[in-house]
Amino acid sequence: MAKEAKEKNIKELEDLPGIGPTTAEKLRESGYDTLEKIAVASPHDLSELTGMSVDNAKKAVDAAKQATTVVYSTGSEIYDQRKLIGRITTGSKDLNELLGGGLEIKAITEAYGKFASGKTQLGFQLSVNVQLPRDKGGLEGAVLFIDTEGTFRPERIETIATAAGLDPKLALDNMLVVRAETTEQQILTIERADKVIQEKNVKLIIIDSMMALFRSEFLGRGALGERQQKLNSHIHKLQNLADTHGLAVYITNQVMDNPGILFGDPTTPVGGNIMAHAATTRLYMRKSKEDKRIVRLVDSPSMPEGEAVIKITPNGIRD
Ligand SMILES: Nc1ncnc2c1ncn2[C@@H]1O[C@H](COP(=O)(O)OP(=O)(O)OP(=O)(O)O)[C@@H](O)[C@H]1O
Ligand SMILES: [Mg+2]
Description:
The chain has helices spanning 21-29, 35-39, 43-50, 54-67, 75-83, 93-98, 119-129, 154-163, 168-173, 183-191, 193-200, 212-217, 224-245, 272-278, and strands at residues 87-88, 103-104, 107-112, 142-147, 175-179, 202-208, 248-253, 255-257, 267-269, 281-287, 292-299, 306-313, 316-318. It is of the alpha/beta class. It folds into two domains: 7-67, 5' to 3' exonuclease, C-terminal subdomain (DNA polymerase, domain 1, Orthogonal Bundle); 84-318, 3-Layer(aba) Sandwich (Rossmann fold). The longest helix has 22 residues, at 224-245. The radius of gyration is 25 Å and the shape is elongated. The two termini are 42 Å apart. The protein binds adenosine-5'-triphosphate (ATP) and magnesium ion (MG).
């Protein structure tokens, strides 16, 4: 994979020409503690810091440059790694296919749509499915569920878990539910989540719904800037948790009618640009006949736009 050109076997600061233990110590104290940092340093700065001549500093920088290499990965290597990325089954084969295999980890997936379109039900199903063994489409992980609307229903989890072959009591024990009533509670839960994620092996974070509290607390045009700023840092922290812990994030979002759209479906998710850029994948859910729901993949870095039809049954999401 990486071709490391180890010129003259330089591995540490002390291996560089003209740099003895005392100089190396001075450099480390000033933050120049790796060969990479020396390689991009200015000889003048190093000279000033250590008292060595600019000429000698230049020799050390050049040697550090030669000893450090950029690590290239080929596209195929990255492709192979990505195939191994874990996914959570949605309960519907068609929806899994639409998503490229299921809900992706290290990413934020957003579902938006009108009331009763199935956003919360899909969240319940994912809360159960993430707990399944890997060969059944799960990640053997726990769930952190932030409920901002008071619509979390343990009875639904009980039914869905039983149908999925899990012990319903254990399934509920694996869910950490936070009923957030203010944006501060919502934000703080995410900000303090690192510890609990590690302790409980959380592999899925759900925020249902992402924007409800932000919308009700920040009213009017004057508050919009502050709202978007808070939302932005909240979303960054979420993405950061997803990346560092290799977990999936599922958020639901409300919609409004965009009067600017004259033709076609005016239904638009709320939250503006910040939300639009937050999610790696956006799903638009809408009601069809009876228990059928149409899920449209709106925005994905790798999958083509398309639709899947799912059913909300008493036992959960099905094809
Ligand atoms: N036990 C059940 N058995 C079958 N279907 C159910 C059951 N519980 C809920 N549903 C279906 O799920 C629908 C509600 O979906 P859901 O709560 O996911 O909507 P939502 O998109 O989250 O809406 P909102 O924007 O109001 O939060 C109901 O209208 C019903 O059709
Ligand atoms: Mg809901």
